[in-house]
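Researcher: Re-running this chain for the archive, since the previous output was lost when a drive failed. Same request as before.
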Amino acid sequence: MKSKSLQISLLAILLGAFFTAFSPEISAKGNTKNTSSSLEWYSRGPQNIGGSVRAILIDQQDASQQTLIIGSEAGGIWMSTDGGTNWNPINYEKNLFVTSLTQTDNGDIFIGTGGDYQGSGLYKMSGSTITPINDSEWSSINDLASKENNVYIASSEGLKYYDGNTFTTCTADGVSLEGVATEVQVNEGGKIIAVVEKACYISNSSFDAFVNHSTGEANQLPLPNVTGSLAITSDNMNDNLFYASVVKTTGVLHSILISTDGGNNWEVILQGGGSIDPFVLDKVKYGLVH
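Model: Regenerated structure tokens:
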């Protein structure tokens, strides 16, 4: 036992002598590494991480339809010019948390940012050059759509319209569509469909002609106060054919509806509350997507 204690004591003395002798040099080297302003850092990858893909667009300026652009929520903008076989990032000075993409008739591509992260506004991409359009109007852009050379923006602060120069809040019966807008789209016939504060609005012509179709009346969509989530889609083969999915505030299906006359009248094609519920799997509710 004494022999072992003696060995430990000698080892401690030797280690102490070592650090005493060399501590100035070690300290100096450590300080140099920590405080030097001449250090240069180089990326060693990986550089093939795009994050969760939230939007994809086929460049209408490419007649071969081989140019694809995707927006990712944590990895910015990526482009493929060979139909998706190879992808390269479009570099920008900061990381863009992309939620949506749309392209106007003149070829400009607009980028919306936000989603699960703090957004930094609306951007325009011409070629491979990205330019900020507005970086303070919204905390999040949830969706984009375009009609001719104009852009519709579903944002956390309402449904907006951009004509290339100014931003305007869209209106329904003269009332501004403020609050959280979760989606917007323009179908082949030029109708604009949007969801604002869990209510469906449709315009046949412009940003100031929206009509509310979530009134709770007969042949209309349910009121927002019974809706936990609302999703609308249009059939591009029929400009007047719309589908709506309504989820209750409890996260289970309320109903799936169809309109064959451009949203004027709605009919239930699948009623919630039965044994069939596409938003419940193994008793877990997945319906509240917004």
